[in-house]
């Protein structure tokens, strides 16, 4: 069904010479679409979530006359009227408790908003930046005033003003028995080795945006690991060994 929608979007783009796009996709859907587009030898398309390394993204198909030079993010920042997604900033009052990703997502879904229109939600001490399908931005501004018991102040932000803050991440150091995927996933996400293997084999672990189902895959510095439903880590540094012959690994954890 999803690939049927993709075929329709490609045809619409070609026949009408307009930008076409999907709703937000998870990483499994992105992997399927990427494989499909490669088989079709398509070149004028890309995944776009508002910023580099966005976990949730739409796929955009571009007409022949638009040249993005492979940088869709910059293109839509400079041509926001053409962007299928918008950026909304939600601020919380000073002294409020820090809200979690679950707080924001749960309160958005409680408004009746479907998950596929919501992109990444980036948390900071002062609130959150929310990527959402453009047609839903005004609805959010009018109706989204609370997350739990915490009041929210909303404003539309230009895409070009978005800045990824280190407040959205934290650095953590773990030890691993090896750089095998199952060992790293177990350590990074505080799982048992068995559960890590099961997660990998079930297709919910992604390395550098691609599904990875081999537990013995070896990882390197700068690899990005996503465990769907649990978060995202980037291997920043592989350090020295401990006395018990385990490796120190420093991760950048996305909050």
In short:
Helices cover 27% and strands 30% of the residues.
Describe this protein's structure:
The protein has 255 residues and is α+β, with helices and mostly antiparallel strands. It folds into three domains: 2-69, Ribosomal Protein S8, Chain: A, domain 1, CATH 3.30.1370; 85-163, Alpha-Beta Plaits (2-Layer Sandwich); 167-254, Structural Genomics Hypothetical 15.5 Kd Protein In mrcA-pckA Intergenic Region, Chain A, CATH 3.10.290. The protein has seven helices and 15 strands. The chain has helices spanning 2-16, 27-39, 72-78, 101-110, 137-143, 181-188, 193-201, and strands at 20-21, 45-48, 58-61, 85-91, 118-124, 127-133, 146-147, 150-151, 153-157, 169-176, 205-207, 210-211, 224-227, 231-241, 247-254. It has a six-stranded antiparallel β-sheet with strand order 10-15-14-13-11-12, with helices on both faces. Strands 5-6-4-9 form a four-stranded antiparallel β-sheet, covered by helices on one side. The longest helix is centred in the first third of the chain and has 15 residues, at 2-16. The chain is globular and about 60 Å long. The mean pLDDT is 91.
């Amino acid at each position: 069904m999803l690939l049927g929608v993709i075929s329709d979007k490609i045809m619409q783009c070609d026949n009408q010479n307009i930008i076409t796009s999907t709703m937000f996709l998870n990483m499994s859907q992105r992997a399927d679409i990427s494989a499909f587009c490669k088989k079709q030898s398509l070149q004028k398309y890309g995944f776009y979530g508002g910023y580099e390394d966005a976990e949730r993204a739409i796929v955009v198909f571009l007409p022949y006359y638009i040249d993005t030079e492979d940088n869709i993010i910059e293109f839509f920042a400079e041509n926001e009227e053409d962007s299928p997604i918008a950026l909304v900033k939600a601020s919380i009052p000073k002294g409020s408790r820090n809200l979690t990703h679950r707080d924001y997502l749960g309160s958005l879904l409680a408004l009746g908003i479907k998950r596929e229109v919501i992109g990444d939600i980036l948390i900071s001490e002062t609130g959150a930046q929310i990527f959402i399908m453009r047609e839903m931005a005004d609805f959010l501004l009018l109706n989204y005033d609370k997350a739990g018991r915490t009041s929210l102040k909303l404003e539309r932000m230009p895409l070009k003003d978005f800045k990824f803050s280190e407040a959205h991440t934290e650095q953590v150091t773990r030890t691993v028995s090896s750089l095998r995927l199952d060992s790293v996933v177990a350590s990074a996400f505080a799982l048992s080795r068995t559960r890590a293997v099961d997660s990998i084999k079930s297709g919910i672990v992604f390395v550098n945006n691609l599904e990875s189902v081999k537990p013995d895959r070896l990882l390197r510095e700068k690899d990005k690991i996503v465990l769907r439903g649990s978060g995202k880590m980037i291997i920043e540094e592989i350090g020295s060994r401990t006395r018990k012959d385990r490796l120190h690994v420093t991760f950048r954890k996305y909050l």
